[in-house]
Every structure is written in C-alpha cells, then in structure tokens.
Amino acid sequence: MAQRIFFASAHTNHPVLGTDDEPGPTPLQAAAEIGNLENVQALLARGADVNAINPGWYGLTALQAACKSGNLAVVKTLLEAGADVNQAGGNNGGRTALQVACLFGHSEIVEILISKGAEINQPAARYGGRTALQAACEGGNVHLVKKLLHEGADVNAGPAFNNGRTALQAAAGGGYGDPIETLLNAGAEVNAPTSRYIGRTALQAAAEEGHLRVVDILIDARAVVNAAGSHHQGKTALQAAAEGGYLKVVEKLLLAGADVDALGGRDSRGQTAFQFASNNMHHSIVDRLKRAGAKEVIWK
C-alpha cells in the first residue's frame, strides 16, 4: 500500500511540521524526501509550488529533498513540472540539487541534473556549503569525482566561509585515498588555506580523523606539516592527532618535522599538542611527545 501524507491544512504550499525558528517542509517537500511518487503527483496536480523553499536554516526544495533520498522517479517528475535545477537551499545549508545529489552519491540523478543544466561550479554556500565536487569528495565517491572533473569542475574552488572544505580537504577528512589521488593528479592544491571558521588544511583534516594512509599521501605530496589552524577551532595537524589519540599519526608527523610546542588557535586557549593529549588522557602520546622534547605545561 502506498504511503500517505496527512495534511495539517488544506493548502498544498503550507508547512506541515516544525517550529517558529525552523518551519517544517511543505507537503510536496515531505513527499519528495520519502520518495512517495503518488503523493508528489497528486500535490502537483492540485497546484503545489514545485519551487517552494522551506524558509528554515537548512530547508530544502522538493527537488533537493528528492535528490537527498535518491528517488529517481520523483526527481524526473519534479523536473518535468518545472523544478529549478539550480535553486539554492535554505539560509544556512544553501545546497543546490546537484550538490545534494553529489554528497549522497546518487550518480544517475547527477547525470540527469547535469543534462538539465545544473551548474557544476555553483559556489559553496557561506555556512557549511559545498560545491558539487567538494560534496562528492566528502561522500567519497571517486566515480562522481572523476565525472565532475570531466565536466569541468574546479578542483581548487574555494571553501565555504564557515566550516568549509576544498575538495581535497573534504576527501582527506573522510580518509578517501582514491579520490585524493584523483584530485592531486588533477592539480589540487595540497596546501590550500583553511576557511576562517572551523577550517582544516587537508593534512589537518586527515590527522584529526586518524587517517594514516592519507597523512602519508599528503606528506609525500609536500603538505606543510606545521600549517597554522583556522581562526576559530583551529589546530595544527599534530595537535589534532594528539587530541584524537592517534599515536601512529603523531609518530608520522613528528618524523616529518612537526613542531611539538606549537600553540593552538585562539579559542583553544593556546594549548600545545602535549596539552591536548594530556587533557584527553592519551598517555602513550603524552610519553611520545615528552621524548620529542615537548614542554610539560599543564593546561589551566
């Protein structure tokens, strides 16, 4: 039996759930996200606005919602009904349908969106946004990465201002070796600067998550080991690895010349790698940093 959506109002374009701060989806958006083709068709026939956008911080259009869930039939129906393929999302998320589909690895939908004129190099939205290529890299889909590069995606497109990642930084944070190799071969800048807020260089992103193989790849590609962290919530690669408890990554970074006494960003109150490790009770890393000459300063 087909799933039904029960409407809170008789109006097809009114939100059905949510709060004053974060309104809920319209019935069409809700139906699209769960892939309910029958309800999508019925709502369109009743005059639902195919391009209505949820006004919340992270709202999606119906097309973006369908791209998130990966329902090909719903995507086709919405496009045939006049869905704007390049419409941005909510105030903060701001991702286009293509960017959403790339993040979730829906290759067939990506093909259709591109054929309908989706902008490959739509810039990343200010707050946590991703270009299509950055999104594909964050999702780790090497086939989509290659497809987007073939279609002319900018391998070094700038990151979002807040919590942004270049394509290489996004792939590094996920530990995706094959996309990283593809990006480097395509000319990705291994030492691209971080976004100002909650940014990471590629090496910092890999170190933070303990991805030793990726750390090796990036160091071999001449990543700057002692690059400073971002203005807000920034850490050097060594600090990030020490905080996370990744001893093998710490060893690798020290061998590559990491500054054992470098200070963290302004909102980490100037902690060193030793202090990050000590505060998180990573005793083996504390011992290793001592052997490397770290100053034994206790965080206050």
TL;DR?
By secondary structure, the chain is mainly α. It has helices spanning 27-33, 37-45, 62-69, 72-80, 97-103, 107-115, 132-139, 142-150, 167-174, 177-185, 202-208, 212-220, 237-244, 247-255, 273-279, 283-291. It contains 16 helices and no strands.
Write the layout of secondary structure elements.
Blueprint: H1 27-33, H2 37-45, H3 62-69, H4 72-80, H5 97-103, H6 107-115, H7 132-139, H8 142-150, H9 167-174, H10 177-185, H11 202-208, H12 212-220, H13 237-244, H14 247-255, H15 273-279, H16 283-291
Helix pairs in contact: 1-2, 1-3, 3-4, 3-5, 5-6, 5-7, 7-8, 7-9, 9-10, 9-11, 11-12, 11-13, 13-14, 13-15, 15-16
Outline type: elongated
Task: Estimate the helix proportion, in percent.
Answer: 40-55%
Which structural class do the helices and strands define?
A: mainly alpha
Report the count of strand segments: 0
Low confidence ranges: 1-11
* Count of helical stretches: 16
| Overall average residue pLDDT | 88
List the helices and strands in order.
Answer: HHHHHHHHHHHHHHHH
Please give the largest β-sheet: none
Q: Per DSSP, what share of the residues sits in E-state strands of 2 or more residues?
A: under 5%
Q: Assign the CATH architecture of the largest domain.
A: Alpha Horseshoe
CATH superfamily of the largest domain: Ankyrin repeat-containing domain
Q: How many domains comprise the coordinates?
A: 3
Description:
This protein is mainly α and 300 residues long. It folds into three domains: 1-94 and 109-116, Serine Threonine Protein Phosphatase 5, Tetratricopeptide repeat (Alpha Horseshoe); 120-234, Alpha Horseshoe (Serine Threonine Protein Phosphatase 5, Tetratricopeptide repeat), CATH 1.25.40.20; 235-300, Ankyrin repeat-containing domain (Serine Threonine Protein Phosphatase 5, Tetratricopeptide repeat, Alpha Horseshoe), CATH 1.25.40. 44% of the residues lie in helices and 0% in strands. The protein has 16 helices and no strands.
